Amino acid sequence: MQIRPRLMIVLGLWLFTTTSLCAQESGPDWIKVTADAGWRARDSSGELVFQDKLWLFGGWFDSFQSPPRDVWSSADGKAWALVEQEAPWKYSDLPMTLTFKGKMWFMGGWTNGRLAGHGATNEVWSSTDGKQWSLESKAGWSPRIAAAVVEFKGRMWMLGGTENYYFGDKTSLKNDVWSSADGKTWELATADGGWSPRAYHQAAVMNDKLYVFGGGNYVPEYHAMNDVWSSSDGKTWERVTEHAGWSPRLWFSSVVYRDQMWVLGGWSNGPSKNWGDVWHSRDGKDWQQLKSNVIWKERHEHSAYVFQDKIWVAGGHAQPLSNEVWSLELPKQFGK
């Protein structure tokens, strides 16, 4: 049978489009490293990479008991060791954690339940082994949870957050920016970063800039955003985009990997929905979705890491709570 030239062109375009779509939808797959990490399923934990290990701190089981104070570590994401059952910090729901100057840092956070009352803190703790912790200060910033914290220009930076959780209002939300070179003395860079006050957002450092993106508020008035802001000094901020490619959301995770910032999962309301998508960007303005045939179940408030040149996702609320660990390794030529 002879195919007419016009039909050949149409057929060629169809094959090209189909091949392109298939390539887009069949990116690298996530690997389930373990279905049971050993620690009790949870969300809202602190997490970081330190001394060639993944670390996980505290978190949330439910709203009727005090949050856990345990510390776990793993050299491979599969086998986890209990380092400390009851660390001295008590505000371990939605804390801020990072590695800085040869120490692990744990700050802020929320507690409720069996402990007297409920509330947030501005305590700043550090440790070199996960077992022994030192209270470095009660910081100059107000007690808070669900802020964003990063290292930038040789200092730790605290951005936004909320002073209250179930019991707060708009005045509890913050858009202030603080920094510290030692965890003891904190300096206010700005009381108003220009971006709207928020919690449950994320921050990243790339291109010699600070970035803040997403987040909003949970109760009593829910709102979520997908805007992106950047700053070269932490004081003066400019909006990169009002609406990124990913949907507005709270409780998502983020990492910087292969010179790109990443958004992983999260939750939004109206209707209530967990997200299981993965997005990446080199500049905060243009975002692409990385699709995989195999990926973790939709979830929020999961822990995310970059470790052994892979992205890792652990735990989170996947309806029900999870203690799975997943990893993703991209080809070396990715993004080039």
Structure description:
This protein has 336 residues and is mainly β. The protein has a single domain, classed as Neuraminidase (6 Propeller). Helices cover 6% and strands 41% of the residues. A four-stranded antiparallel sheet has the order 1-26-25-24, with no helix packed on it. A hairpin with a 6-residue loop joins strand 22 (273-281) and strand 23 (288-289). The radius of gyration is 21 Å and the shape is globular. The termini are far apart. Mean pLDDT is 91; it is low at 1-25.
Question: Which fold name is given in CATH as the topology?
Answer: Neuraminidase
| The CATH C-level class name | Mainly Beta
Please identify, by name, the CATH architecture.
6 Propeller
Radius of gyration of CA atoms, rounded to a whole number: 21 Å
Q: Please report the total strand number as a whole number.
A: 26
The strands making up the biggest β-sheet line up spatially as: 1-26-25-24
**Can you tell me the number of structural domains?**
1
Helical region count? Answer: 1
Residue fraction in strands: 35-45%
Instruction: Return the average pLDDT rounded to an integer.
Output: 91
General shape? globular
Short description:
The strands form 7 sheets. A 4-stranded antiparallel sheet has the order 1-26-25-24, with no helix packed on it. The chain has a 4-stranded antiparallel sheet with strand order 2-3-4-5, with no helix packed on it.
Keywords:
26 strands; Neuraminidase; four-stranded antiparallel sheet; 336 residues
